[in-house]
Amino acid sequence: MENENLSPAKFADRIQINRANISHILNGxxxxxxxxxxxxxxEMPYINTEWLINGSGQMYxxxxxMDSIPKEHDLFSQGPATTPQEKEVVVKSxxxxxxxxxxxxxxxENKIIEGxxxxxxxxxxxxxxxxxxxxxxFIPQPVK
Length: 144
Prior knowledge:
Elements: H1 8-15, H2 19-26, H3 34-43, H4 49-54, E1 87-93, E2 96-102, E3 126-129, E4 135-138
Antiparallel strand pairs: 1-2, 3-4
């Protein structure tokens, strides 16, 4: 998953197994079943079977180019974000194409929006989601 930049959820979706199964395997609760191993090898035929099962040898089969794997992007390793106002313009100069972003400006009117103020609203629960697809729920205790 790490070499292909896949989250546990994306990996589970890719090999078509339940996301909870991947979570249990990664947390050490369960070992991968033969079905999981078979699905990994079916979806990723370039993975060395010996490495996957025993951890010995190279991860990829001989002759496989790791750079040919399409990478999934994550939010933290991408380059700078482009705004919807940016358009690509191709400028041709002596047979060489150069892509130059053309920025347009947009006037934005700032307005103050008054929220509904209600003193009878109370927090009923707080849910924290973790990157390993687990979560915790906190329910506040009544004030005495």
